[in-house]
Amino acid sequence: MDSVLGILRAEHRRMLDGTSMALAVADRLEHGETVPTGTLSALANFFAYAVHRNHRDKEDSLLFPCLRQKGFSEGLGCVSVLLTQHSESAVSFARMLSAAEAYENGDRQAISAWILATRQYVEALRSHIRHEEEELFPQAERLLTADDQQELATAFAKAEERAKFTGIDEVLEDYERVAQTLTKLQLPRRS
Q1: Is the whole-model pTM more than 0.85?
Q2: Which residue of 1, 21, 90, 126 has the fewest C-beta atoms within 10 A of its own C-beta?
């Protein structure tokens, strides 16, 4: 079984792959090129599930409270900052989602809003992930016992089941289709 931090790190890697795709799409659109229909919605739906519904639930509802119970005194400020970042990035994500919906419904003017919101969201998400990986996780690894890890792993599995919804398979298939399409188009993947 992976450690709970290993699970979160793997989710981070997948989210970072998504941010690279989103930036590549933003660059392409900014240069007047097109992307296949459904691309913006597929990316937005992926982030809605992977970040806002699945990953954040594990952190906000399970990991952070566990760390607080363990007396994570130095980390309390860190956890507070991370929770604030969760809220702030949700705002730019909402703008990204709204612009994607408008664009997919024929509003070609929404593309500028999508590009701006996407870049803001990606920057915030990447910064947040760095903060967790470099500051929070090393401290958490020292605090969490094997029993804590086991208890959290069980809770993470339940959270993952809660995060699933009707249509999740289609969301993930659409995301993979976008990844494959972008690879075929030889769209540069931004770091």
Answers
A1: yes
A2: 1
